[in-house]
Amino acid sequence: MTKPNYSGTYHMVEQENVDAYLTGLDVNVALRKIVCMLKPTKEIIHDPETGSIKINTITTFKNFSMDFNIGKEFTEDLRIVDGRTCQTTVDWDGDNLVCVQRGEKEGRGWTHWLEGDKLHLEMRVQGVAAKQVFKKAE
């Protein structure tokens, strides 16, 4: 079965519970306030043939890049986010991209899925979930 191609540029249009998620990652209050005010853009380059995906998250504060192959574990440097590294695997669950980040924090990871021209992101850590929705640029 063919998987969806996530390639595109997406602008955030809504978010919920991000402060609680960042608290679960032990991010300090000043940085949490800044992050909750940001409106990130995601640029995704996805090669369905090879399973290679690059996700660039761009903000006016800091940028973050994640480059991986579906189903292959890698060491992810999250020091820009919360000062940690973890062992990360992204795989398919149906048409959803599901990320598991093994490290100091239990239950850490995220899920991306597409609905029409919207890219959804649910981020999880220690039983707390935050959601963001991005609209594909025309």
From TrEMBL:
Q: Give the highest taxon in the source lineage.
A: Eukaryota
What SUPFAM superfamilies does this protein map onto?
Lipocalins
InterPro entries annotated for this entry?
Calycin, Fatty_acid-bd, ILBP
Q: Does the keyword Coiled coil apply?
A: no
Q: Does the keyword Isomerase apply?
A: no
The alphabetized UniProt keywords are:
Retinol-binding, Vitamin A
Example GO molecular function: retinol binding
Q: Which family does it belong to?
A: Belongs to the calycin superfamily. Fatty-acid binding protein (FABP) family.
Protein function:
Cytosolic CRABPs may regulate the access of retinoic acid to the nuclear retinoic acid receptors.
Under what name is this protein listed? Cellular retinoic acid-binding protein 1
* Highest classification ranks of the organism: Eukaryota, Metazoa, Chordata, Craniata, Vertebrata
